[in-house]
Design brief:
The chain has 16 helices and 19 strands. It is α+β, with helices and mostly antiparallel strands. It has a single domain, classed as tRNA-splicing ligase RtcB, CATH 3.90.1860.10.
Amino acid sequence: MEIKKLADFKFRIERNAADRMNGGVSVYSTEEMLGKMKQDKTLEQAVNATTMPGLVGDVLIMPDGHQGYGFPVGGVAAFDADEGIVSPGTCGYDINCGIRLIRTNLSEGDIKGKEKKLADALYSNVPSGVGSKQNLGMKEVDLEKIATEGADYLIKKGFGTADDAENTEEEGVMDGAAFDKVSKEARSRGLNQLGTLGAGNHFLEVQKVEKTIDEKIANAYGLYPDQIVVMIHTGSRGFGHQVCSDYLRLLLDYQKEHNIKLVDQELSYAYVGSKEADSYLQAMKCAVNFAFSNRQIITSEVRKSFEQVFGKSSDELGMNLLYDLAHNIVKQEEYVVDGRRRKLYIHRKGATRALPSGSENVPKKYRHIGQPVLIPGSMSTASYVLCGAGGSVKETFGSACHGSGRVMSRHQALREIPASKTFSTLKSKKVEIRIKTRKLVSEEAEWAYKGVDDVVGVVEKANIAKAVVRNIPIIVIKG
C-alpha cells in the first residue's frame, strides 16, 4: 500500500476503489512510529475497516496506534447515523476502558515516608489481577440499576458526590441502556467485579505533577507543580468483554442472513436501525455505565485508603475528581463534514474524546478552556493531562490518543524484558509498586511501549490537544 506524507505528523493511505475502500486512512504519527505500525497489522486493519458501509471521512489512526482484534487500537471510525453501521469489534472488548484523575491538596513532602503504607492500603482496598472480585453485597437488582443509571446510582448510595458525576464523560451514564439485552453470562461475570482493576494494562497510580506546561489551563484544572494526584485506568471487566463477545457471535449469523462478505470476521457489523444494531447499542451502553460505576467505586476506595493513612477526610485532603473519560466506546455525535452538519456514530477504540473550548459536551467548569484529556504512560514513565484543541473537531471527529501504545506483543515482552530490569528501574526512580505477578512486570515494562512524550508531541503538532501538565509515578498498583 502506498503511504503519502502530508506533514511531519500526518500520513495518508489514499482511497482505492479496487480494494473496496469507502475512504482513506489518516495516520497521525512520526516516521519512527509509522515504521513500527508497518511491522504489525495496524495499517492493514485500518484499510480493512474502510470497506465497511456508511464510512464518513477517513479511518483515523492515532500516534499510539497498534494492531488490535480486527480494528487497530488507537483507531477512530465514523459512520453515517442514518445509513451507516455499528460494529462491536470497532469499539473493542473492554467497553469503556477509561481513565479518571483525582486531585488532592497534598504535595510530595506530605506523603514522604508513607509511600509503603499508602501502597499497602490501596492494594488491599482495590482488588487487582485476573478474575479479581470485590464483595460489596450487590445483588442483580443493583447490577441492573448500575447498568441503566450509571455512576449516579452509586453516588446516591454513598460512593461519591454529585461533583463526581458532573466531571465524568456523559455525566457518568449513557441513556438508552437496556438490561434485557445483556446475557446472563455477562451479568454473572460482572456482579462481583465492580470495584476491581483487573489485569493487563489496567492500573492505579499515585502521581506527582512534575511540571506545568500550560499554566493558564493548569490553573483552570486545579493542577500545580509537586501536587499529588491519583490516576485510575480500568474498564467494564468481564461484563463488557462478554457483551462484545455475545454480539460478535450474534452478528456472524446476521452477516450470513444478509449475504455480507467480511474482509475480517472481527469487523462484523449491523446496519443502523436494525434490531441487531439497536440491541448491541443498548447492551454496550449497559457496559459503558458499568465501567463508569466501576471507576466510581474504586474512587471511593481510593479516598478511603488516603483517609486511613492520613487520618483526615477526603474532603480535607481535597480529593476531587478532575475528569473521567472513555477509551472504547460508540457514540452518536455531530460534526461538520464537507460543509454539512451530520449525525455520526463515532467508534473510538483506544482513542479518547478531546473537545476544545466552547463545546457543549464539555463540563461547564471547563467549557471556557477545553476538555481535560488524560494520557497515561507505562508504569515507570510519565503521564500527561492535555486539553482538547480546535484541530480535533476539524481533523479527528473530536478525538485524540489514549496512551503511549504498545510496540511489543506481550509474548515478545516476556521473552525480551526480564522483570528484574523493570524492578531495578522502578527502584532507581523511587517508585513503590504492588503487582500480582512477575510475568505482568515484563509485559507492562516501559520498553514494551512507545515513548509517551513522543506520542503527546504528535497530537500537539496536529493541534488535536495541548499539553497541560506532566506527571510522574510515585506508587503503582497493577494486577
